[in-house]
Amino acid sequence: MDPVLAADLAAFPDLLDATRRYATDVLAGLDERQVSPAVPAQTTALPSTGTGFAAALAEFDRRWADGFAASAGPRYLGFVTGGATPAAVAGDWLTSAFDQNPSSRSGAEAATELERETVRWLAELFGVDGHTGAFVSGATTSNLVGLAIAREWLGEQRGVSVASAGVGALGEVTVLSGAPHSSVYKALSMLGLGRDRLRLVPTLPGREAVDPAALEEALAGAGGPAIVVGNAGTVNTVDFDDLRALVELRKRYPFWLHVDAAFGGFAAVSDEHAHLVEGLAEADSVCVDLHKWLNVPYDSAVQFTRRRDLQVQVFQNAAAYLGLPTDNPDFVHLTPQNSRRLRALAAWFALAAYGREGHRDIVARCVAEARRFGALLSATPGVTLLAPVRLNVVCFTLDDPERISEVLDAVTASGEAFLTPTVYKGQTALRAAFSNWRTTPEDTNRVHAALAKALRG
């Protein structure tokens, strides 16, 4: 054994303890850490001779650590980024320590069953108890899996198996949506259906929610089975399609209903907002991203479907050492990956530790802070809200849109907060997404103060 590796093995407990202390210091400093710091120093060549973990940690701290964003912290409001709760961090550490591959029950039965239990817990949390599912890397892969199953369903309607015959056997394909996330286009590209197959359907006036009447007209003109991508929480304004109306349309027109509920699905845990996802249980496939509002470490998402049989047709990976799919198929037959990290463990710890009530509290506090931030912006000269604060995202613009880049750069340079730009209905805008379990009213005040200072120039 390499002598440096052998020395690290002998000192393994001490190295883990040093890592714990280092991580503890990082997390303890999140409140005051620069939220989006400058790029670190230049990279170096691959070392010929290793120096061992202790020296590597010292080098990481010297060259890289200060350049890492405080994305786990309370004022990182860009994209839709959760932090990681204590139980989720600990679960993620144990994921690496146990180093399981839950793709097959062979040699990893307990890990596989833990993932199944976690998926059932999540299905109950989101009100889709009749669905089966699996863990994947993020919302993009979750949408990919859902649309892959939809593609196989289209083939079933036409008497072919796309998984066997290829996408060319489908002929013309119609995919309809009101305000799809960009990952839907990416998934359609990867699936061979094509980005151009997605037809945008008009949304309701002043909304990002699809107009059910316009959708019905599009379905009537489709001339056969189609795919509809419903939205439960759009990126810019967290708008929700009327899922009940979509389910009713499905009684008259043949289509696969895939719902992108990446973070809007968490409305289900809130008594005040659960009505927004009524009808989700009737969707054919559902995407939920967990490293957003479940506040588990990257990368983690879950996909759900009511047609696991079609999912197996797409993703089965029969080999002598894997075996054929059974009535309760291994995960190797359900997702794009053969080898998979046990992503479920961090989510299992989060759900076991905090339960439904703990996560309901996280959602409620994030929504409260989003509303408060919206109210502060409404009273700020030079700022206009572009939509009501429906859940946890605040979408706004400046009276002088040409200053948006300047103001955004100033906020980022202050180290106090991180926001992301967007375009909403043709207007350049800014978004603040409240998804982190740590965010407090004081943090919201600090973000607003940094923005107000940047506006003053």
TrEMBL record:
One GO term under biological process is: carboxylic acid metabolic process
Q: Which residues carry this modification: N6-(pyridoxal phosphate)lysine?
A: 292
Q: Provide the alphabetized UniProt keywords.
A: Decarboxylase, Lyase, Pyridoxal phosphate
Q: Which Gene3D superfamilies match?
A: Aspartate Aminotransferase, domain 1, Type I PLP-dependent aspartate aminotransferase-like (Major domain)
What the entry lists under InterPro entries is as follows: Aromatic_deC (IPR010977), PyrdxlP-dep_de-COase (IPR002129), PyrdxlP-dep_Trfase (IPR015424), PyrdxlP-dep_Trfase_major (IPR015421), PyrdxlP-dep_Trfase_small (IPR015422)
Cofactor(s), by name = pyridoxal 5'-phosphate
Asked if the record carries the keyword Transmembrane helix, the reply is no
* Alphabetical list of Pfam families matching this protein: Pyridoxal_deC
GO function term, MF aspect, one? pyridoxal phosphate binding
UniProt similarity note: Belongs to the group II decarboxylase family.
Record protein name field: Glutamate/tyrosine decarboxylase-like PLP-dependent enzyme
Q: Which organism is it from?
A: Saccharothrix variisporea
Q: What is the lineage of its organism?
A: Bacteria, Bacillati, Actinomycetota, Actinomycetes, Pseudonocardiales
